[in-house]
Design goal:
mainly alpha; Four Helix Bundle (Hemerythrin (Met), subunit A); two-stranded antiparallel ribbon; 7 helices; 2% strand; disordered C terminus
C-alpha cells in the first residue's frame, strides 16, 4: 500500500457493517421493481462478489481473470451512473453530492489501473485491492444511504422513468443487451451465485450478456 493509500485510509475510517446494512435495507425499501434504483443495488451486490473472487483467487492467471471481470462490472456500472444518475442528481439540486460521486469513481478507476503494474500474487497487490474495495464500499454506502434516496425523493415520476430507461440503456451499451445470458454470476433480488463475474442484471430477474472486450484488466 502506498503512503497516499495509507493516509487516505487513516482519514476516512470505514462505516460499520451494521451501518452499511441499514443503508442498503433503506434503499431496497425505496426501490420499485424494475427501477433504476433496483438495478443499481443489484449491480452493487455483483461488484462486492467480484471483489471477493479476486481476493480469493488461487493463482496468478485466476486472479488476473477475476480482475478483468471486476473491471468490467465496475466500468459498466460507473458509466451508467456517470451518464445518467449523477446528472439527474445534480439537476435535482444535489450538485455537491453528484460532484463528489464523480470524484470517488475517478479515483477508483485510477487505482484499478494501478493493479496492472503489481504482481497479482504479491501482498502489495492485495493491499491495493483492499484499499480499492474499501473506497468502493464507502462510495456505495454514500449512494445507498443518502444520494440515491435524494434522487428518489426529489425526482418526479417523469424523471424516475427517464432515469430508469437511460440507466438500462447506458449499462447495456457497455455490457450488452438486456435479456441475454450473462454467462456467470446472476445478481438479482439481493443474492449472488458463484461463477465467473460478468455484467450483472439490469433489473430484478433480467440479465445482460457481456459483449465488451475484456482484454484489459482496468476499467480505463
Amino acid at each position: 500500500m502506498s503512503m497516499l493509500d495509507k493516509v487516505i485510509a487513516a482519514v476516512t475510517p470505514p462505516e460499520s457493517d451494521e451501518a452499511r446494512m441499514k443503508a442498503r435495507e433503506k434503499a431496497r425499501a425505496a426501490a420499485r421493481p424494475g427501477s433504476w434504483l433496483e438495478m443499481a443495488l443489484d449491480h452493487h451486490l455483483g461488484i462486492e462478489a467480484a471483489f471477493a473472487r479476486v481476493a480469493s483467487a488461487a493463482s496468478s492467471a485466476e486472479r488476473r481473470a477475476a480482475q478483468k471481470d471486476l473491471a468490467l462490472l465496475l466500468t459498466g456500472h460507473s458509466n451508467a451512473e456517470e451518464s445518467v444518475i449523477y446528472p439527474a442528481l445534480a439537476l435535482c439540486g444535489e450538485k455537491a453530492h453528484a460532484e463528489m460521486a464523480y470524484v470517488e469513481q475517478s479515483a477508483a478507476k485510477i487505482q484499478m489501473a494501478a493493479l496492472d503494474d503489481l504482481d497479482p500474487m504479491s501482498q502489495d497487490y492485495l493491499d491495493k485491492l483492499e484499499h480499492i474495495r474499501g473506497a468502493v464500499a464507502h462510495h456505495v454506502y454514500e449512494e445507498e444511504g443518502t444520494r440515491f434516496l435524494e434522487l428518489v425523493d426529489k425526482g418526479n415520476a417523469e424523471t424516475q422513468a427517464r432515469v430508469t430507461a437511460r440507466y438500462a440503456e447506458e449499462y447495456a451499451r457497455y455490457c450488452g443487451d438486456t435479456g441475454g445470458d450473462m454467462g456467470g454470476t446472476m445478481v438479482s433480488g439481493g443474492s449472488a451465485s458463484g461463477g465467473s463475474a460478468m455484467c450483472g442484471s439490469t433489473a430484478s430477474g433480467s440479465s445482460v450478456g457481456s459483449t465488451h472486450d475484456t482484454s484489459t484488466g482496468s476499467p480505463i
